[in-house]
Amino acid sequence: xxxxxxxxxxxxxxxxxxxxxxxxxxxxxxxxxxxxxxxxxxxxxxxxxxxxxxxxxxxxxxxxxxxxxxxxxxxxxxxxxxxxxxxxxxxxxxxxxxxxxxxxxxxxxxxxxxxxxxxxxxxxxxxxxxxxxxxxxxxxxxxxxxxxxxxxxxxxxxxxxxxxxxxxxxxxxxxxxxxxxxxxxxxxxxxxxxxxxxxxxxxxxxxxxxxxxxxxxxxxxxxxxxxxxxxxxxxxxxxxxx
Length: 242
Known about the structure:
The protein has 242 residues and is α/β, with parallel strands linked by helices. The protein has one domain (32-241): Rossmann fold, CATH 3.40.50. The chain is 33% helix and 14% strand. The protein contains eight helices and five strands, in the order H-E-H-E-E-H-H-E-H-E-H-H-H. The protein has a five-stranded mixed β-sheet, with helices on both faces. Helix 4 (124-131) runs parallel beside helix 5. The chain starts with 16 loop residues before the first helix and ends with a helix.
């Protein structure tokens, strides 16, 4: 972990934050066959996917919320089911985008599997099925077992609304340097599958305050942190060349 800072930010942020927030609040999908833009979050166990959903909901609702349950202690995936989160504008209406949380990726560690019964987290093939809309809401992921046609939880006739429209990779800055090659390979495989389907993608770095003491002191130092800049560049290289 490092605390050195650049004199100037290494990334420029949009100046008109309110304008961007207004756009998000008023967004409507252009395709009439799509009621909601479906955003799938994926990444390693403990990356903070559920916390990110809570943060977005808190900003949009103007108060702190915690509907997506989190667990930062156990070390294995807290999310077991394919869960959809819809954020309410008011009691009767929801925003035109929804989040899907999914079980995290883990290294296939036999000893760890015996101790915690995690067996490597979510299967890559199950995430690919989710991308194409074949996983139903509430399906409980079974490590080492791929969801197959005919299984309970398999959607044999997905609509355009069931499919994933945006893929978001969530990565913890505090443990990026110790992510296994195996987990990175799984994430890249999902990324390539999404690319073939024409699904736009982006990556989010979480837990930045745990990774850099200067950021913990002042969140405005995020884009001045030399350590975080190094982590971003490192992840970009591993993401592209794994």
